[in-house]
């Protein structure tokens, strides 16, 4: 049972936006204290009392994880929603290969054509050999052909033009990779959230 209590629960704000991940143990405390409500697969919400009644109704379902107490078996909620919290945590966007692809929409920033990610490179607008940094403002998607044409030069030196000036994205994914992904989480996680779960590039 201890392993179940340590497993993960997705936490939403009251607008059903994901804000972080907690343990089953902590989720039950928040349900019991009235801080949160459990959310089922049909997006219905339950306070502790009604979740207990639902747990009794589905008792014996082999597909449901449960926590046993001396008096009853409680179904494990995989998603909870905080009753009054409506804010999203402020966080920086991870500087990673996938997030650069997401920002540039898999489009070469020189020729404008879209490619599969395996056919794209990351290009330093101002080459590192000229002091260019590995930052949001100096790295763009580039197809192999344009990358070879530009070489170790700036776009001006290579007679090429950027489609748009690279900037740090404004979207803000909210949490880091959990140890396991549950199917019940999928409706609440956007593509931006998923893109956050990857390796950060080093300067």
Question: What's this, in brief?
Answer:
The protein is of the alpha+beta class.
Note the topology.
Elements: H1 2-6, E1 8-12, E2 18-23, H2 24-32, E3 36-39, E4 45-46, H3 48-57, E5 66-68, E6 73-75, E7 79-82, H4 97-104, E8 120-124, E9 139-143, H5 144-150, H6 191-195
Parallel strand pairs: 1-7
Antiparallel strand pairs: 1-2, 3-4, 3-7, 5-6, 8-9
**Radius of gyration, rounded?**
23 Å
Name the shape in a single word.
Answer: elongated
What is the SS-derived class?
alpha+beta
Q: Which sheet architecture does the biggest sheet show?
A: 5 strands, mixed
Instruction: Give the N-terminus to C-terminus distance in angstroms.
Output: 44 Å
Helix % is 10-25%
- Element pattern in H and E: HEEHEEHEEEHEEHH
- Strands across the major sheet, in which order? 2-1-7-3-4
- Measured by DSSP, the beta-strand proportion falls in 15-25%
Low-pLDDT parts are: none
Q: What integer is the average pLDDT?
A: 83
Question: What's the helix count?
Answer: 6
**Quantity of strands, as a count:** 9
Count of structural domains: 2
Question: What does this entry look like structurally?
Answer:
The chain has about 200 residues and is α+β, with helices and mostly antiparallel strands. The chain folds into two domains: about 110 residues, no CATH class; about 80 residues, DNA Binding (I), subunit A. It has six helices and nine strands; from the N terminus they run H-E-E-H-E-E-H-E-E-E-H-E-E-H-H. Strands 2-1-7-3-4 form a five-stranded mixed sheet. Strand 3 and strand 4 form a beta hairpin. The longest helix has 10 residues. The radius of gyration is 23 Å and the shape is elongated. The two termini are about 45 Å apart. The model has no long low-confidence stretch (mean pLDDT about 85).
């Amino acid at each position: 049972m201890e392993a179940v209590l340590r497993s993960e629960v997705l936490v939403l704000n009251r607008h059903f936006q994901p804000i972080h991940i907690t343990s089953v143990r902590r989720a039950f405390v928040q349900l019991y204290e009235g801080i949160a409500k459990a959310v089922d697969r049909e997006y219905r919400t339950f306070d502790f009392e009604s979740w207990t009644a639902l747990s009794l109704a589905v008792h014996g379902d082999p597909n449901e994880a449960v926590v046993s107490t001396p008096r009853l078996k409680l179904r494990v909620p995989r998603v909870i929603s905080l009753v009054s919290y409506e804010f999203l945590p402020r966080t920086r966007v991870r500087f990673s290969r996938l997030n650069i692809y997401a920002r540039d929409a898999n489009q070469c920033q020189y020729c404008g054509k879209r490619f599969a990610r395996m056919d794209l490179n990351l290009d330093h607008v101002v080459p590192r050999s000229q002091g260019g940094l590995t930052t949001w403002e100096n790295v763009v998607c580039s197809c192999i052909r344009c990358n070879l044409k530009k070489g170790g030069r700036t776009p001006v030196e290579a007679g090429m033009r950027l489609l748009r000036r690279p900037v740090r994205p404004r979207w803000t994914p909210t949490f880091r990779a959990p140890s396991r992904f549950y199917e019940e989480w999928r409706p609440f996680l956007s593509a931006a959230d998923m893109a956050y779960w990857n390796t950060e590039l080093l300067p």
